[in-house]
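User: Please predict the structure of the protein below. I'd like the answer in structure-token form so I can feed it into my own downstream comparison script.

Assistant: Understood. Taking the following sequence of 340 residues as input:
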Amino acid sequence: MSHQSKRIILKSFPQGHPKESDFEINTIEIKEDEVKDGQVLVKLLYVSVDPYLRYRMKQVDNKAFQGYKLNEPLTSICLARVISSKHGSLKEGDNVTSWNLTWQEFSIVKGEELNKLPSNDLPLSYYLHSLGMTGFTAYFGLLSVGEPKEGETVLVSAAAGAVGMLVGQIAKLKGCKALGIAGGKEKVEFVKSLGFDDCLDYKTVDNMDEAIKKFCPNGIDVYFDNVGSETLDAVLLNINDGARLPLCGSISNYNDTKEAQGPRRTFNLISKNAKMEGFLVSKYGKDFGKAQQEITEWLKQGKIKEQIDERNGMEKIVPSFIDLFHGRNTGKVVVKIADE
């Protein structure tokens, strides 16, 4: 049996913001009899689109973020279903995830590259957000790098985004004051609905230095950075002694055509005995099971709210990815490819 399989390839490296013309959808044939020992044939169910993928669309040589190649299919974190298997631990009907699955309706994959999902009553899409890499990023970035203490002030940029919305909620569970930064009235109200103590609309700000000072009158103990640029600079002016600054992303710079300048004001890290630390969530891989178990309990107990921004169809993957850089999303963006 064979399957006609749509896939998305990279036609050109984006210059500035990505455009739909940088990508192409074509169709190939996948034959089930080509599955070899140790491999499985999977059907794509959900695709995760994330800002960091833009970095992979540059001509980079980085082991942590391997660059895409022209005229080859793109990959990201995805959720799929096993159609046929020649791998001992996986069988037909199993739901699986991979951190690097092709944007292709059907794929033949090494079984060892897939993680079988547990069976419970939670939506599958949660495993691309709170119960997957995004949730682990928020969990370990805040708790292991940020090390929040009860009563401290935690500030989160891109607070209406997939990671930021979870960071603030976890901060509240740990007894902290959670403050967010987001763009636009609708996103600000969304962030507040999650239980954040307050949220700053950066689109109304003329002077970020003064805005952060006014918004955080008692200073900042933990700043979870998703954006970089002038926001990070302004935060550095307002950190408390012993502050911790986990660096998760820098979405404001991903589409720059020139190398970003900064950060400035790093002397404040010295004068405040503060720590600024970048991290990759893969560092905490041995503890993913523990994190998933705890987040699962929080979800079932209603202590964490989910927000899945679901789109439908292969043709929506690229527009949904582009939307990330124009603020046209709230929460976690996933694209549903096939019915569960």
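That's the full token string. The domain at 133-282 is CATH 3.40.50.720 (Rossmann fold).
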